[in-house]
């Protein structure tokens, strides 16, 4: 990468944009609401069940001027969701400051594995076993969303719930390919442990992005 461009990426003035789209939030607390998604490339957390593995290699997603990303976003919605990949691999300060200057609500979906940068109205923390969140993200998360692939994920979920702040909303979400098997297990678990809620990937049931 050109040195000048690399400097802009490092400062957050350019970002490896994979895709951007206007749709319905499908998961967690804000499910069913319209939002504009900014998906950034780059992730080294490496979940084997990830449904956007094409986001992992940031080099496949050319650096895009952050100002242009913001200009596109503000045309569609007052709620912007930054996702990935793992967006906290990049400095989010410039992006979120520009989005906030347009009076937009700014959400992030993150594994929490990197330093928390940026100013956020909502932080959805979806921790992964291979690379655990930083304490700062635990402290500031608004919702904890644990993906359930097998029974050990319930243990992991409780471990993670013990680390987040007391106001954090707790969700268990079935991994899509295992949903028929794990949904009954999640329902049973939530009924026995009602501090948890069930999250579903409703956008997949609705057949939308």
UniProtKB/TrEMBL annotation:
Q: In which pathway does it act?
A: Purine metabolism; 7-cyano-7-deazaguanine biosynthesis
Which residues participate in substrate binding?
24-26, 39, 83, 209
GO terms classed as biological process: tRNA queuosine(34) biosynthetic process
- Name the catalysed reactions: 6-carboxy-5,6,7,8-tetrahydropterin + H(+) = 7-carboxy-7-carbaguanine + NH4(+)
Q: What is its EC number?
A: 4.3.99.3
> What InterPro entries has UniProt attached to this entry?
7-CO-7-deazaguanine_synth-like, Aldolase_TIM, rSAM, rSAM_sf
List the molecular function annotations (GO) for this entry: 4 iron, 4 sulfur cluster binding; carbon-nitrogen lyase activity; magnesium ion binding; S-adenosyl-L-methionine binding
Query: Locate the Radical SAM core domain: which residues?
Result: 30-209
Decide whether keyword Magnesium is in the record: yes
- Gene3D superfamilies linked to this entry: Aldolase class I (3.20.20.70)
| Cofactor(s) needed | S-adenosyl-L-methionine; Mg(2+); [4Fe-4S] cluster
**Entry keywords, A to Z:** 4Fe-4S, Iron, Iron-sulfur, Lyase, Magnesium, Metal-binding, Queuosine biosynthesis, S-adenosyl-L-methionine
Top-level taxonomic group: Bacteria
User: Is Metal-binding found in the keyword set?
Assistant: yes
Give the cofactor note text: Binds 1 S-adenosyl-L-methionine per subunit. Binds 1 [4Fe-4S] cluster. The cluster is coordinated with 3 cysteines and an exchangeable S-adenosyl-L-methionine.
Instruction: Summarize where [4Fe-4S] cluster binds, as residue positions.
Output: 43, 47, 50
The record, for HAMAP family, names: QueE (MF_00917)
Cite the record's note on assembly.
Homodimer.
Biological function: Catalyzes the complex heterocyclic radical-mediated conversion of 6-carboxy-5,6,7,8-tetrahydropterin (CPH4) to 7-carboxy-7-deazaguanine (CDG), a step common to the biosynthetic pathways of all 7-deazapurine-containing compounds.
Give the protein family: Belongs to the radical SAM superfamily. 7-carboxy-7-deazaguanine synthase family.
Q: What is this protein called?
A: 7-carboxy-7-deazaguanine synthase
Which organism encodes this protein?
Yeosuana aromativorans
Q: List the gene name.
A: queE
């Amino acid at each position: 990468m050109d040195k000048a461009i690399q400097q802009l990426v490092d400062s957050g003035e350019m970002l490896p944009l994979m895709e951007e789209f206007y749709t319905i939030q499908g998961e967690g607390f804000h499910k069913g609401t319209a939002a504009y998604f900014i998906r950034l490339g780059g992730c080294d957390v490496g979940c084997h069940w990830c449904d956007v593995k094409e986001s992992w290699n940031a080099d496949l997603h050319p650096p895009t001027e952050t100002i242009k990303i913001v200009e596109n976003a503000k045309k569609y919605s007052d709620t912007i969701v930054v996702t990935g990949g793992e967006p906290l691999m990049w400095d989010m300060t410039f992006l979120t400051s520009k989005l906030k200057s347009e009076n937009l609500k700014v959400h992030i979906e993150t594994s929490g594995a990197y330093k928390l940068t940026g100013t956020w109205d909502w932080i959805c923390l979806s921790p992964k076993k291979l690379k655990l969140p930083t304490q700062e993200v635990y402290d500031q998360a608004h919702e904890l969303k644990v993906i359930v692939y097998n029974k050990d994920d319930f243990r992991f979920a409780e471990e993670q719930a013990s680390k987040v702040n007391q106001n954090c909303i707790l969700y268990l979400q079935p991994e899509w390919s295992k949903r028929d098997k794990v949904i009954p297990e999640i329902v049973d678990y939530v009924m026995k442990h009602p501090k948890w809620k069930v999250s579903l990937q409703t956008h997949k049931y609705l057949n939308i992005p």
